[in-house]
Model the fold of this input.
Amino acid sequence: MFTTNVGSIDRILRIIVGLCLLSLAFIGPKTLWGYVGIILIITAFINFCPLYSVFKINTLTKSK
Done:
């Protein structure tokens, strides 16, 4: 369905940053910006970032 364009290090960073942002919505200043973390977590789990495809970015390393 989608071409994979998110590498493993990128996935880990997306999950960590996504969880930190999401915690802002519940624990921190309780702003709506914390919900941006949901987008990062979803793109980490599906291995596809729509913005990466628009800008032709690929963090996936190809093994031989």
